[in-house]
Amino acid sequence: MPRRFSITAVLIILSLLAGCQPAAKDTGMPINPSDTVKVLVSILPQADFVKNIGGSRVEVTVLIPPGASPEDYEMSPRQIQKISEADIYFTVGSIPFEQISLPRISSANPDMPIINTSEDIMAEEQEPHEGHQHDPHVWLSPSLVKEQVQVITRSLIKMDPEGKDLYEANLEVYTGELDELDLEIKGLLADRHRDDFLIYHPAWGYFAADYGLHEIAVEKDGKEPTAQEMMQIITAAREKGIKNVIGSPQHSARSAEAIASQLQGQVKVIDPLPADYIAGMGEAAQAFKEILTD
Ligand SMILES: [Zn+2]
Questions:
Q1: Which whole number is the average pLDDT over 142-164?
Q2: Looking at domain 191-293, which of 3.40.630.30, 3.40.50.1980, 3.60.15.10, 3.30.460.10 is its CATH number?
Q3: What percent of the chain has pLDDT over 90?
Q4: CATH 3.40.50.1980 at 6-185, yes or no
Q5: pLDDT over 90 (residue 121)
């Protein structure tokens, strides 16, 4: 572990004592770049979680670049180099990218701890139904993100005990922001006309469960639907008064376009991998509000 100047820790503690409010996200203290904790994450929202907890004590590398899909992304040789230099890797838990790439990642850096940030969530959840995979999109529920940032905080403290006060203060601030986000989403969705939404790639199951919504997926087990399945989806959507289909920037979806035109609606894009989580989820909730009240 990198050595740190104890003056930094003293100043952090002083800044914590200075007010009753939890400390700001960052200390503003310059930290020698060679002393930072080098963190790997799989997806963009996780990088935001780690930066919110770690501030300037961490340096984060995202393995799945913007625009790529966690379902089928393959790493480049240059990324293997980055992996070999990292101190710790936080996984989402069960996204297909991780299932495929974990052996390569751990052989590139055998001593690096790999922390499953969903370990608490998966322990609580019941066994998935037969024939159905565990839903990997755990970051799209603010209440589940609160559990993931706790795992991140615990692990950073273990790696870098001198940062403990900062990490804990930042956890408190960020947890408060997630609670506010949760209230904002509830407020936005309060006047909706229906609970059902139609979506190409079913990423929003945990979000739907949190807010009393119901997800109808076009994609079946990661594949385009058959013509017969498309007809069934169109019939179900008409019965429920649904016109629009939700798409995502990471999936091109011709069947979604075809279904939307049959319903005389449109494909509305909602990003399930926001780089700024709180802002991105606010925008997503606004888009859901419009789709559920059209
Ligand atoms: Zn997905």
A1: 97
A2: 3.40.50.1980
A3: 74
A4: yes
A5: no
Residue 146 C-alpha to ligand 1 middle, in angstroms? 20
Facing residues of 37 across strands? 58
Q: How far does the centroid of ligand 1 lie from the alpha carbon of residue 130, in Å?
A: 20
Q: At residue 216, does pLDDT exceed 80?
A: yes
* Cβ atoms of residues 208 and 137 within 8 Å: no
Q: Select from 189, 192, 238, 199 the least CA-distant residue to 219.
A: 199
Residue 128: is its pLDDT beyond 70? no
Task: Count Cβ atoms below 10 Å from residue 16 Cβ, excluding itself.
Answer: 16
Residue span(s) of the chain under CATH 3.40.50.1980 come to 6-185, 191-293
The first and second tokens of residue 124, run together, are 């609580």
Q: For residues 218 and 62, what is the distance between their CA atoms, to the nearest angstrom? A: 29
The alpha carbon of 201 and the centre of ligand 1 are apart by a number of angstroms equal to 7
